[in-house]
User: Which sequence fits this backbone?
């Protein structure tokens, strides 16, 4: 069976969900819907290291690949999550080639990177270290977020960094950081998204997008975007609960 990273960089169209509810039960519920992957939101949700490992285990026991959006691009944000067995990381706010290269280094063992060797869950708690060392560099997915004016300006150089697999666009942050908000800002935001997508695809990178709704996916697919995160579990729960209560009140 083709591994998750290979499917991402192929690039195959993939639909995932953010997990923001910091509990393995919520991950199991999402995993039961058979998404292509899950992404724990360690940037915005209160998911500590121990809880992350339990959530990663819950996804993988259901056969669902799981990555984590980490707080930053340095090893102290990335190493533990990979030792816990995550299939990859999503690194926010990458605006320069130095930051992109640092993220690559943090996700790869030497000689490519600087990842430290540890007997964590990923390596069978030490029992499978040689196997894990032999395959991890080619199996771990590195997705970086393009969501700042710096990323937009430097996208040619960032997209050329070897070891970056997916350039993921955060339209919310990109709109805020560019000051391209609301209907008036939409043309500028769209131009930025198109530029990031075109340059990244030309450099051979897969491109990802956050979508609040699955209805957005066909339009982004037409641009060549393939890696999607569709909302998060907390929001899906709130939407479904809100709709149920509203329907009940209608009588
Ligand atoms: C954004 O839209 O900026 C995101 O980062 C989605 O989580």
Assistant:
């Amino acid at each position: 069976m083709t591994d998750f990273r290979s499917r991402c960089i192929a690039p195959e169209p993939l639909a995932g969900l953010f997990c923001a509810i910091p509990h393995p039960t919520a991950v199991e519920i999402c995993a039961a819907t058979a998404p292509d992957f899950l992404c724990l939101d360690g940037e915005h949700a209160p998911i500590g290291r121990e809880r992350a490992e339990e959530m990663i285990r819950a996804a993988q026991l259901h056969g669902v690949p799981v990555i984590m959006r980490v707080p930053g691009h340095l090893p102290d944000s990335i190493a533990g999550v990979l030792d816990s067995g995550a299939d990859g990381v999503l690194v926010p706010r990458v605006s320069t080639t130095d930051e992109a290269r640092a993220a690559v280094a943090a996700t790869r063992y030497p000689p490519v990177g600087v990842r430290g060797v540890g007997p964590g869950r990923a390596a069978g708690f030490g029992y499978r270290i040689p196997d894990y060392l032999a395959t991890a560099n080619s199996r771990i997915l590195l997705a970086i977020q393009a969501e700042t004016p710096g990323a937009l300006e430097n996208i040619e150089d960032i997209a050329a960094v070897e070891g970056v697999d997916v350039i993921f666009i955060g339209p919310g942050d990109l709109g805020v950081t560019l000051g391209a908000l609301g209907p008036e800002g939409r043309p500028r935001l769209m131009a930025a998204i198109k530029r990031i997508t075109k340059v990244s695809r030309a450099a051979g990178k897969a491109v990802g997008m956050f979508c609040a709704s699955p209805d957005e996916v066909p339009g982004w697919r037409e641009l060549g975007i393939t890696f999607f995160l569709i909302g998060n579990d907390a929001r899906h729960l709130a939407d479904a609960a809100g709709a149920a209560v509203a329907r009940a009140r209608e009588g």
The chain has a mean pLDDT of 97. The longest strand covers residues 14-19. Residues 4-250 form a domain with the TIM Barrel fold (CATH 3.20.20.60).
